[in-house]
Design a protein that fits this description.
The structure holds two protein chains of two kinds. Chain A has five helices and six strands. By secondary structure, chain A is an alpha/beta fold. Chain A has one domain: Rossmann fold (3-Layer(aba) Sandwich). Chain A has a six-stranded mixed beta sheet, sandwiched between helices. The longest helix of chain A is centred in the last third of the chain and has 22 residues. Chain B is 48% helix and 11% strand. Chain B is built from 28 helices and 13 strands. In chain B, the strands form three sheets. A seven-stranded antiparallel beta sheet of chain B has the order 3-2-9-8-7-11-10. Chain B has a four-stranded antiparallel beta sheet with strand order 1-4-5-6, covered by helices on one side. In chain B, strands 12-13 form a two-stranded antiparallel sheet. In chain B, helix 18 packs across helix 20. The chains are: A alpha/beta, B alpha+beta. At the A-B interface, strand 2, strand 3 and helix 5 of A face helix 1, helix 6, helix 8, helix 9 and helix 17 of B. The structure holds guanosine-5'-diphosphate (GDP) and magnesium ion. The site of guanosine-5'-diphosphate has 19 residues of chain A, from helix 1. Guanosine-5'-diphosphate binds next to helix 1 of chain A.
């Protein structure tokens, strides 16, 4: 029989980074174990879910993929809300994508508006490590950046060759789980307990209606 | 709740630990007793439909009890390929545009279809039993995703459904007879206690009375929960008397769904609502699509010199609107529909003008081509655009034969047209999504110069979609919301109480005019229909309304929220019947147009009903 309807924790993970660094490829490699060089450029937002075991706990990871061009970020930020972990991705062969990490991180903190921004879990992925011969950003440089941001964990990965993708996302899941447990202590899920908090919801549009 | 240990772990995270985590997540963790999986049901003649190429793959459907839970699993049969299944595909487009890439093996394609789904993740399933042919089941997950459709070949579906009922409670949707919902037991229990509350239903009225206000607080969740779980459960419960049901229903259903008022949300101003009396739209007329315009019909509208008579133009456009044009005619018709060749221009005049346009194209092409690497190193904007174009060209419609394979000359031409457009329109440059607009144009026009100029004409229509401020997109999404409010207030209220009334889930539809939702052939037809600007300039929005209208019961019955709606809408891609949608959109147009005097003015403006024919 079924092991019982024990509620699975839902971990919401957002992947951000410049267009073309491989966000869609990473997500698909992790969830579907596939790489295709025929993925289309992402328009709008989408997500994939995957069940994973973390320390004997079954959790559902909901991984969000968005379009990389900045102008499209102003829409769809509603999906940043409630994120448990933010994955920043850059392309190790493209130094611009590395330089833009700061603004991706800032943008996320502004839009998602987590309660404790200094300790919000980020993870950095340097993708396309299979293209070592074209490397433009050294591991050292990336690690230094991570240290300066409160010790963000760093992984070099390849969505194409499936290198390190699994272990990186395991770490992401752990960070997200830690975050989720913090959060759900504050906002338990209905119907365990009903909580009224008028400050909790501040959607970007249409909020503040006092009718 | 979640063990605090996990949190502490992160506090002292270190690399050594992390390496340990690399183990396969689905494998049983150490220390747990390993239980063998038990197959409780095995049906060996269940085929799946591959939507990419409309083929059927035979396979095995199993229900398996595992240590982690109960799973519904479908795997392709070892001996497939396709195993003699009849392909029920009348579309000929695949002959022209192969959708199966050569480098991907058949086996890989088939394996992509296999799935394993936890029964606890099942939200509902579509269950269709046609009088003729195989019954079909399509599983819908809690996240809004749909699995591949399964066709039960020699067996009925009852063994499978009976088996599922050992683990979950199922109920056929009262609104959609083809939908079977997984009932949340918690909801059932709650429903009973709600009835027990009897006269205390004012608590519920408070939840239900004002979904908008409650959505602004944490209560939004409860409102949705009540609407989706409690009310249907209440209505279906046998323990509740008929009278009680009616009373409960009257008290629980909010005015907005069944009452005589609708609220219209206007623009960006927060809290600015206008109360309008709900329109009773006239019944939706039956609309039939017509056959595509042939070369012969098209030519019959031409003067001897090749220009078109202004007086007959409206008729011709209506013909294109009603049926599109035949694929062979596209190369010519698109030049006119996009305004590259003027309707009143003779062929000789155009030929002359084209010579200038050709020179102009190569002049601009030469501009970006002459920028060398050294210059580029001091021209960041150019270099950013160039790399964006390169990246996007490499992932635009690569599964179509026309753009298939490495070193394909058509890719180079797509790249060159887009780069030259950056020179033509410096202010806009290249923005993602533009390659989606460009690729069908290049495919149809073939000639690089013609394709470029037609592309500029198309960009004239849609450039605001790509503006830095995204105001136009936001505006169109708001307009869509207003239209849904008029045409389908029930859906609109549902979206509001599920944090989805910003209509963001339609972003992709609007940004690239459904390019990602339809095949190349259907996209071409849709676009030429829209380029006629008949019967109103904003017909695109009515197409959105028509699709959402069709999905209403499915979305509501499944109780989808913000994320599930987005997932469901994204997955509609390649599952939308274009002719059906065009007919429905036109029918909705007639409904609205017949109610013009009663519609708020801004709604008429959204459709640009009042605008005269631009030609
Ligand atoms: N060599 C290599 N190419 C990759 C890798 N990951 C992605 N790509 C390619 O990089 C391009 C952009 O990938 P995509 O996942 O669409 O990037 P996104 O815009 O960040 O979602 C595609 O052409 C991919 O094939 C990788 O690990 N190695
Ligand atoms: Mg992407």
């Amino acid at each position: 029989m079924s092991s019982g309807p024990r509620k699975k924790a839902l971990l919401k993970v957002i992947i951000l980074g410049d267009s073309g660094v491989g966000k869609t490829s990473l997500m698909n490699q992790y969830v579907n174990k596939r790489f295709s060089n025929q993925y289309k450029a992402t328009i709008g937002a989408d997500f994939l879910t995957k069940d994973v075991m973390i320390d004997d706990r079954l959790v559902t990871m909901q991984i969000w993929d968005t379009a990389g061009q900045e102008r499209f970020q102003s829409l769809g930020v509603a999906f940043y809300r409630g994120a448990d972990c933010c994955v920043l991705a850059y392309d190790v062969t493209n130094s611009t994508s590395f330089k833009n990490l700061d603004s991706w991180r800032d943008e996320f903190l502004i839009q998602a508006n987590p309660r404790d921004p200094d300790h919000f879990p980020f993870v950095l992925l340097g993708n396309k490590m299979d293209l070592e011969q074209n490397r433009a950003v050294s591991s050292k440089r990336a690690q230094t950046w991570c240290q300066s941001k409160n010790n963000i964990p760093y992984f070099e990965v390849s969505a194409k060759e499936a290198l390190n993708v699994e272990s990186a996302f395991q770490a992401i899941a752990r960070d997200a789980l830690a975050r989720e447990s913090q959060d759900s202590q504050d906002f338990p899920d209905f119907p365990d307990q009903i909580r009224l908090d008028p400050n909790q919801n501040n959607r970007q549009q249409g909020g503040g209606c006092n009718c | 709740m979640i063990p605090i240990l996990a949190y502490q772990y992160v506090k002292k995270r270190n690399e050594a630990n992390r390496r340990k985590m690399a183990e396969e997540p689905t494998s049983n963790s150490a220390g747990r007793s390993v239980m063998p999986d038990v197959v409780v049901l095995r049906l060996s003649a269940v085929g799946a439909k591959n939507n990419e190429d409309e083929t059927y793959v035979s396979g095995v459907l199993q229900v398996v009890e595992k240590a982690r839970g109960v799973f519904i699993e479908w795997t392709p049969a070892e001996d497939s390929p396709v195993s003699g299944w009849v392909l029920a595909d009348g579309n000929d487009e695949n002959a022209l545009l192969s959708t199966s890439p050569p480098q991907r093996s058949f086996r890989e394609n088939v394996n992509k279809l296999k799935f394993s789904m936890d029964v606890n993740d099942l939200n509902s399933f579509k269950h269709v039993e046609p009088k003729k042919g195989d019954p079909m089941i399509r599983l819908i997950g809690r996240d809004g995703s749909s699995q591949v459709p399964l066709y039960f070949r020699q067996t009925s579906t009852s063994a499978f459904i009976d088996c599922l009922q050992k683990y979950i409670t199922l109920r056929r949707s009262s609104k959609d007879p083809n939908l079977v919902l997984v009932v949340d037991e918690k909801a059932d229990i709650l429903a009973k206690s709600v009835v027990a509350l009897d006269n205390n239903s004012d608590i519920l009225s408070r939840f239900m009375g004002n979904p908008y206000a409650t959505a602004m607080t944490g209560l939004g969740k409860i409102t949705a929960y009540m609407q989706e779980q409690v009310i249907p459960a209440l209505l279906d419960s046998d323990e509740v008397g008929a009278e009680d049901k009616i009373r409960a229903m009257r008290e629980l259903r909010n005015d907005d769904e069944f009452g005589d008022r609708i609220r219209v949300y206007r623009g960006e101003d927060q809290g600015d609502f206008e109360v309008v009396t709900q329109l009773e739209l006239p019944p939706r007329p039956e609309i039939y699509r017509e056959t595509p315009v042939t070369k012969q019909i098209w030519d019959s509208y031409k003067n001897p010199h090749g220009s078109f008579d202004q007086r007959n133009l409206h008729n011709l456009k209506m013909c294109v609107f009603r049926g599109g044009v035949e694929p062979e005619l596209r190369k010519e018709a698109w030049k006119y529909l996009l305004g590259y060749i003027r309707w009143n221009e003779s062929l000789a005049e155009h030929k002359l003008r084209r010579q200038e346009l050709e020179k102009d194209y190569y002049r601009m092409k030469g501009q970006w081509m002459s920028i060398n690497a050294e210059q580029e190193s001091r021209f960041l904007m150019f270099s950013n655009r160039k790399s964006l174009v390169e990246k996007d060209v490499a992932r635009t419609d690569r599964t179509y034969k026309y753009f298939e394979g490495e070193g394909n000359a058509n890719l180079t031409r797509l790249h060159d047209v887009l780069m030259t457009y950056c020179m033509y329109n410096f202010d806009l440059g290249y923005v993602q999504g533009m390659s989606d607009f460009c690729s069908p144009i290049l495919f149809v026009l073939e000639d690089e110069v013609d394709a470029f100029w037609c592309f500029t004409k198309l960009m004239d229509i849609v450039h605001s979609n790509f503006a830095e401020d995204q105001l136009s997109i936001k505006q169109q999404l708001n307009q869509l919301h207003d239209l849904v409010m008029i045409v389908n207030p029930k859906l609109c209220n549902y979206l509001e109480s599920h944090q989805s009334d910003d209509m963001y889930f339609c972003f992709r539809w609007i940004l690239v005019w459904f390019k990602r939702e339809f095949s190349f052939e259907d996209t071409s037809k849709l676009w030429e229909v829209l380029w006629t600007k008949q019967p109103c300039t904003n017909f695109l929005l009515l197409i959105c309304v028509a699709i959402l209208d069709k999905e209403t019961e499915f979305i509501i019955a499944n109780g989808f929220g913000l994320t599930e709606i987005l997932k469901h809408v994204n997955e509609l891609s390649m599952h939308i019947n274009l002719d059906e949608v065009l007919s429905a959109a036109e029918a909705i147009f007639h409904q609205l147009s017949a109610s013009q005097d009663k519609l708020p003015k801004y709604v008429l403006d959204h459709l640009r009903l009042s605008e005269p024919d631009p030609y």
